[in-house]
Each structure stands twice: as structure tokens, then as C-alpha cells.
């Protein structure tokens, strides 16, 4: 059993950059958590659990044998991006990790780092930019010709996966920011609802198109060979459904979290 588990967790293609980036993220969070705890204000246990669970899920789909099946089955690939762009990214953002990561930089270096990153953050965290990138990258990487090249090029494949993860985290950070928009100058709750609606329907349309399109839309899997003995039509339908239904459900969950944040701050102001 241990041998089987070890084999399942072994990377299909070892990526030093992937290991390094995940280790940096976890280490930075732990250092930040320790510094905040020393000041008597550590992040709550459930937020820390959400962060580590999100990171773990993303690592499992990117750097284990799951990645092998993602390269040779379209519907597994869509499951991989469902985790990177939605579930895993959602859990990481739900943890509100930015204050913890900022604490890692320390009081001495944080102002300088914040000044460098402020212009980039101002652009990427803009509601319109974040929404366009969130939806646009899905359409971009699922364009049949681009998808064909990405699945055959290791560099493009890794770029595709990392762009989906980073973009997903940015989008959900904007949506799930727990701070008071008036004080923190973040996106207002109504804007966040509009972002979710704007992201919802294009994904539904794309998923429906893939589901009902003629088989062979993504012929790279036929050329390379499929890991499971299922036909191209079934693989494509399952992939289309994974592009269609779970992301829509995640959008609804996101809307419920935003509604809860709005009601909490509304009650605080009313009180």
C-alpha cells in the first residue's frame, strides 16, 4: 500500500521550479504566521487550514501522477484546471493570505516591497482586468490550436497551468477580500457580484459548446493516445461538463461568501 501511495505521489515529470515555488509559498506563510503569532494576532485555524488545503490540492494535480492523466485525458485535464483555477485558488484566497505573507517580509522590508508591487497589484486587482483575465485565460488555453501546442510543449504546458493558478488566486482574492471596502479601498460588494455574473455565463457557454460539439475538437489526445480506454466523444463530453457545471457551482459559493461579508459589514455599520 505504501509503495502504491509513493508511486501515486511521484511526479510524472519532475519540475524543480514547481517544487521551489510551492516550498516558497508554504515557507513564507509559516514565517508570516509565526511573526503574527508572536504579536498576538495569528490567523485563525480555519483560515490556515484553508490555505494549506488549497496549496496541497494544487500541488497534487500539478506534480504527482495525476499530472500524467491530465496530459492524456481531456476530462482529467479539465479536472486539473478546475482545481487550479477554482477550488484550490478559492481555498487559498479564502484564507486571506496576503497579510500573513506580508508579515513574512517583516516591518523593515515590507514598505519597499509593497512600493514595488503596488503598480502591478493596482492593475491585476482591478475588477475589470481580473474578470477579463479570469475568463479570457480559460478561452485562450481551450482554443483548439493553442491547446494542441500547449499539450505538446513542456514549457507551454507549465505556463498554462501556472497562469491558471495565479490568475485564479488573483480573481478570488478580489472576490473574497474580507476587509471593509470603505476603509481598505477594495472592490465594493456590488462590484464583486457583477464580477461573478460576468465570469459565470461565458464559462457556461464554453462548457456547453464543448459538451455538444462534434467529437475530435481536441484531437491532440487522439494523437498522443488516451490513458483510459474511453472514446473521444465521451472524453470530450465529460471535459465539457467539468468546464460547465462545477465552475458555475463555485461561482454560486463565491456569491454566498460575498453576501455573508456584505451582511456582516452592513450589520456592523447599522449597529
TrEMBL record:
Keyword terms of this UniProt record: Cell membrane, Membrane, Transmembrane, Transmembrane helix
Main localization category: membrane
InterPro entries listed in its UniProt record: Caa3_assmbl_CtaG-rel
One Pfam match: Caa3_CtaG
Membrane topology reported for the UniProt record: Multi-pass membrane protein
UniProt subcellular location: Cell membrane
Segments passing through the bilayer: 12-32, 44-62, 82-102, 123-143, 159-177, 189-212, 244-263
Protein name: Cytochrome c oxidase assembly protein
